[in-house]
Amino acid sequence: MVSTKYRFMALAIITVMVSVAALTIVGCGETDSGGSITIGSGDFSEPWILAEISKILIEEHTDISVTHTRNITGSTLLHEGMQSGDFDLYPSWTGTQFAGVLEMEITEEWRDREKIYDYVKEQFDQEYDVHWFPPLGFDNTYALVVREDYAEEHGLETVSDIVPMADEVEVAMDATFYDRPGDGWVDFQAHYDMEFARGHSMDYGLLYRAAAEGDVEAAIAYSTDGRIASLGLTILEDDLGFFPPYDGAMVARNETLAEHPEIEEALSVMWGAFPEEVMAGLNAEVDVEDRDFEDVAREFVEEMGWID
């Protein structure tokens, strides 16, 4: 007959074994959950929409949990965040990183979209262990915009047309363009051999209104922004070819893709699916129609048949 003392000892051992087994099961569950990643995006609608579409596709087609962190001001901060491991994925543009992070000079040999994409993709892989996915289908370059009535009054169709009156023109732009070397504010004026009266660095969401209401005569806009047409603004042709191609693409850490190779398949439907008119339309739904970017992203994904 087993004593009471040993019966208690046996029960204690069984209790510990059950607890360990339960912890093991929980631990296995966490390992099989797919883990989590963070997508970063800038401080305007286009990267919000693209990041949110990526988030939806990854969460719908994998077991990965995704956090979308918005309003990271400037491409350099996003790049640094990826290098430090704060971000696993973010939307970017080839021209932004060509002249920004890679500090390449914009010359005539670097006007070809495919050539710039191939260079940026190769350099980011070699120098930063970062992968550029295929282009999304649109070129969102910078553009000088003015009010339509102002353009008609002064006969403006190209950037060269505004050169003789540049010293009377104030221009609004975001902080990224104001500060960036290569294809930013200083080099833009030098390329056209002109000097504007003043440049105003401001939040990107404010510069369109400033131009439309006449607070400034011109603004540096993004060519796929839906607010250009809706606010009665017009793009002046970059007739001397200053701005390089800005092909949109998703960018990811190689380490993240090695750990979660299923991400590439989940996002592959996005490649080439966003021509300029589509991206501009999505941007307009947020910026002009004042819709939530999350709703716009999910509606688009559903309409494309990318999720059930």
How is this structure best described in words?
This protein is an alpha/beta fold and 308 residues long. Helix 2 links the parallel strand 1 and strand 2. The chain starts with a helix and ends in a 5-residue tail after the last helix. Helix 2 packs across helix 15. The protein has two domains: 163 residues, 3-Layer(aba) Sandwich (D-Maltodextrin-Binding Protein, domain 2); 95 residues, Osmoprotection protein (prox), domain 2 (D-Maltodextrin-Binding Protein, domain 2), CATH 3.40.190.120. The N terminus is likely disordered. Strands 7-6-8-5-9 form a five-stranded mixed beta sheet. It has a three-stranded antiparallel beta sheet with strand order 3-10-4. Helices cover 48% and strands 15% of the residues. The protein has 15 helices and ten strands.
Oligomer: single chain
The tally of strands reads 10
Question: What is the domain tally?
Answer: 2
Identify the CATH class of the largest domain. Answer: Alpha Beta
Structural class, from secondary structure content?
Answer: alpha/beta
SSE order: HEHEHEHHEEHHEHHEHEHEEHHHH
- Order of strands side by side in the largest beta sheet? 7-6-8-5-9
- Radius of gyration from the alpha-carbon trace, in angstroms: 25 Å
Pick out the low-confidence regions: 1-32
Number of continuous helical runs: 15
CATH superfamily of the largest domain: Periplasmic binding protein-like II
Shape: globular
The description of the largest β-sheet is:
5 strands, mixed
Bin the strand percentage: 15-25%
Helix % is 40-55%
- Give me the CATH architecture of the largest domain, please: 3-Layer(aba) Sandwich
